[in-house]
Amino acid sequence: MANTKAYAATAPDSGLAPYAIDRRELRADDVAIEIDYCGVCHSDLHTVENDWGGSKYPVIPGHEIVGRVTAVGPEVSHFKAGDLVGVGCMVDSCRSCSACDSGLEQYCIEGSTMTYGSLDRHDGSVTHGGYSERIVVSERFVVRVPEKLDPASAAPILCAGITTYSPLKHFKVGKGHKVGVLGMGGLGHMGVKFAKALGAEVTIFTRSEAKVAEAKKQGADHVIISTDKEQMKAAADSFDFLLDTIPVAHDLNPYLKCLKYDGTHILVGLLTPIEPALQAGLLVTKRRVVAGSLIGGMPETQEVLDFCAEHDITCDIEMLDIRNINEAYVRMKKGDVKYRFVIDMKTLKEG
Ligand code: NDP
Ligand code: ZN
Fold first, then answer.
1. pTM above 0.90, yes or no
2. Could you tell me the distance, in angstroms and rounded to a whole number, from the CA of residue 14 to the centre of ligand 1?
3. Which protein residue's CA is at the shortest distance from atom 9 of ligand 1?
4. φ, ψ for residue 108 (rounded to 5)?
5. GO molecular-function annotation terms (predicted)?
6. Is there an atom of ligand 1 within 6 Å of 164 CB?
7. Gap between the Cα atoms of 209 and 202, Å rounded
8. With a 6 A CB cut-off, is 128 part of the ligand 1 pocket?
9. Complete domains list, the chain, with CATH
10. Given the CA of residue 268, which atom of ligand 1 is nearest to it?
11. Per residue in 268-317, pLDDT tens?
12. pLDDT, tens digit, 9 for 90 and up, residues 62-97
């Protein structure tokens, strides 16, 4: 598995460039995957640029991976060569704590091993993600991609999809609920599709007038321009849930005012401190809740893929030649993507 072609960042300001890595020989429970497609998540950009601190260079990002199995270790029972499979944000966990036992590996008490930039629990090497030709992953962290789904548009389900599906399911969002989705990017546009499929009335909150028609096309019932104070005021006390995918610190208070009493603001986009400060009064006086949610566990990641196949849900993607990855990051920063770049890994093999 030596000399696997990949793209890596070597410093926060280096951009991404070709880089060769070694993939490990198969362990007994490992699945080897030839990668066909890999989605480009805003988290890739955060890690490349070290926005969250602690990035380990070289960084080879990518956690929306779809490909075909090429080989399996002797203890693998669920997959065989030729199967269409996916790998998301995690590749390992302790597998024995209460979270792992409940299929919530993302909340592993010892900390899960992320697809890139984590230390492998067995040999201490740094994990490398899907901007590469192939990957080797333990079977527990591999999911089956229904053949009915287009494999390229299915790739973002592995992160953008599960991250928005999981909290909607956890909070039992359904018929009769009014849901607002904040930010119409990779996660946001999937959030709209899932909330609609679950029966909710859905509003997109966007900064961008230009996205209004698009939001309706995605199935949103209403659109609110979040920078328009009058529109925000008119939405006061009307939402059961807000699913917040905005990737940078932003004022939560105007959004909290849009929640009914007992309403819940679910953060998925922000991992850094909330600034400006929350007005506690907005929570206390209406028993409002601010919650967070991280991707989803392995059983639920399989569930969301099957849900998408059943409900004909896929991501809206723009296919990307990996040689244009740095330009794609610039566009992602501007919010100028409809709505997910997916790398066609053929372009890495040719390049
Ligand atoms: P995108 O860049 O695709 O979309 C983010 C959207 O947020 C934009 O399209 C834009 O929508 C809005 N936005 C961007 N900048 C601002 C700003 N300054 N103020 C207000 N709104 C803004 O990102 P993704 O959807 O890929 O990811 C979103 C966030 O979720 C990232 O921070 C990512 O790291 C995180 N994430 C979290 C996960 C989890 O498990 N919790 C998993 C995966 C990702 P509009 O133009 O409509 O306003
Ligand atoms: Zn992601």
1. yes
2. 22
3. 185
4. -45, 130
5. alcohol dehydrogenase (NADP+) activity; zinc ion binding
6. no
7. 17
8. no
9. 4-159+315-350 (3.90.180.10), 161-292 (3.40.50.720)
10. 41
11. 999 999 999 999 999 999 999 999 999 999 999 999 999 999 999 999 99
12. 999 999 999 999 999 999 999 999 999 999 999 999
